[in-house]
Write a structure and sequence with these properties.
The two termini are 37 Å apart. The chain is α+β, with helices and mostly antiparallel strands and 177 residues long.
């Protein structure tokens, strides 16, 4: 049996009941296996990022029939090859970074910039707006999973994050996973 190939299928469309069922059935009917995914309703737009494994013939069927899925499901979808080789790099330690602040533009970029400068890789990001207690003002919440190089001085990263978060009036917490 041939080694499975991996592709990333992305799809976005108006949210409605059955959309996940349709995409999952499309993959399964063509011989694909859904290995990993992130799916979310973003203000009425349902977005999916799916890691699919399949034999080469099944990957071809998925790619060849993608226009049918888009037409039937009213989605915008694309398939991209996924390189499953281990990424080059140094050993890293996973951390969870949680940030809360009154919402204003630039919060994600500011945090991402500090992480980039410190050589930290962002593995995942979840953000949301919620009404703040009492005032109902928009409260921004962000949770990241990051990979900190094993040889990086975590104290320096904490110092940089503390300075940024103090300057931007953000609460934050960095914890090892």
């Amino acid at each position: 049996m041939a080694e499975p190939h991996h592709v990333v299928l992305t799809a976005v469309g108006s949210d409605r009941p059955g959309i996940v069922d349709e995409v999952a059935a499309f993959i399964a009917e063509r011989g694909g296996n859904l290995e990993d995914s992130r799916m979310v309703n973003l203000h009425g737009q349902f977005a999916m990022v799916l890691l699919v494994s399949a034999a080469p013939e099944a990957v071809s069927r998925i790619c060849d029939d993608l226009d049918d899925l888009c037409a039937r499901s009213r989605l915008r979808a694309e398939v991209h090859p996924a390189d499953m080789a281990a990424p080059p790099g140094r050993p890293a330690v996973p951390y969870r970074l949680a940030v809360t602040a009154m919402d204003h533009p630039g919060l994600v970029q500011a945090v991402a910039h500090v992480l980039h400068e410190e050589g930290v890789n962002i593995e995942s990001v979840d953000t949301s707006l919620r009404p703040a207690p009492y005032t109902n003002a928009p409260l921004f919440e962000m949770e990241m999973v990051v990979s900190v190089p094993a040889d990086a001085p975590v104290a320096r990263l904490r110092e940089r994050l503390a300075g940024l978060c103090d300057a931007m009036n953000m609460d934050w917490q960095l914890t090892a996973l």
